[in-house]
Amino acid sequence: AIRNVGEGVVEGIVTEREKNGPFADFTDFINRVDLAVLNKRTIESLIKAGAFDSLGHSRRGLTLVFEQNLENTVARRRAEDAGQYSLFGGAESALELTPVEIPVEEWDQKVKLGFEKEMLGLFISDHPLLSVGSTLTRMVSAAIPSLFEMEDGTQVTVGGMVSSITRRYTRSGDPMIFFELEDLEGGVEVICFPRTVAEVGPLVREDAILVVSGRLDHRGDDVKVVAATVNEPDLRPDGALRIKVAAAALSQALITKLKGVLHNHPGAAPVFLHMTNEVGEMKVLRLGDEFCVEPRSALYAELKELLGGRALA
After folding, report:
1. 3 state DSSP class of 143
2. What single-letter DSSP state applies at residue 103?
3. pLDDT at 92
4. 45, 81, 261, 311: which sits with the fewest CB atoms below 10 Å from its CB?
């Protein structure tokens, strides 16, 4: 569901599309859908959710001009419905206005994804962790799903995005924080007792990317991390892509597929292959310049699908 967009609105849009074919662009959309759909709050929510991405418009560009285009179209269509035609018949010559051109500039990824989650409750087009995956992976000792296989009391360092926060108080009135930390593979609840809250409380906020060190607390089938330290890491990439893989897994077929993935994302960032043998020894190989890439979320997603979630070193 999209925030501020009712079920009836969605049904109206789908019905029009099924009856008369796909919408060509935003102007075509506002010319065809029921007038009940054309209110500013609904359209703005659809834009921020990415509903018009497939029409080739940038979300920021649409937010800059949609109100003027909407007002012009609604005025013309209402005049048509009321039978207010020009002296020369046909239509709307007196009211017809050229649609305002939609700018091409887009929000930066953080703003774009922030609006997307606000409207949808989750990320759809991308995820903030994908673009920092390799950097964050080097800072942690374990992916979150592996915590459930570790013993109670194990010291761990995990990283991810804060997805929900609950603040409570002890009987003596001291603050505690409980929050869900999610990486790209799973989530775990983190508990901050008063002493930790006093040191790091301001860092814990919705959608913050944090690295947490602490001990595991097993309670039945549930696992929590009792935080000792919480840090907001510097996630600026070092300019290189580092891929971790077992040397024994590097079959010719896998190498061919890996080359294909890298060639699909050409750029300036060098690629390093971290190969580990059966006894844990690592050899690092810098790939040739023809395999340099542009680090971006689509590349990270393809590498994880090919090599597994722990492939980004």
Report:
1. coil
2. P
3. 45
4. 81
Residue whose token pair is 């002296």: 87
Q: What is the per-residue pLDDT for 200?
A: 92
pLDDT at residue 238 above 70? no
- What is the rounded CA–CA span in Å between residue 160 and residue 190? 11
Q: Which phi and psi (to 5°) does residue 39 adopt?
A: -115, 150
Q: What CATH number does domain 131-231 carry, 2.30.29.30, 2.60.40.1120, 3.30.70.100, 2.40.50.140?
A: 2.40.50.140
Residue ranges of domains in the chain? 7-120, 131-231, 241-307
d(CA 128, CA 161): 8
Q: Which of 126-135, 151-160, 291-300 has the lowest mean pLDDT?
A: 126-135
**Is the pLDDT assigned to residue 58 strictly greater than 50?**
yes
Residues in contact with 161: Cβ distance below 8 Å, sequence separation at least 6, in sequence order: 128, 129, 181, 182, 183, 207, 208, 209, 210
Distance, in Å, from the CA atom of 248 to the CA atom of 277, rounded to the nearest integer, reads 7
111 with 58: CB under 8 angstroms? no
Runs of H (alpha helix) within 166-231: 194-200
Question: CA separation (Å) from 97 to 88, 94, 138?
Answer: 17, 9, 56
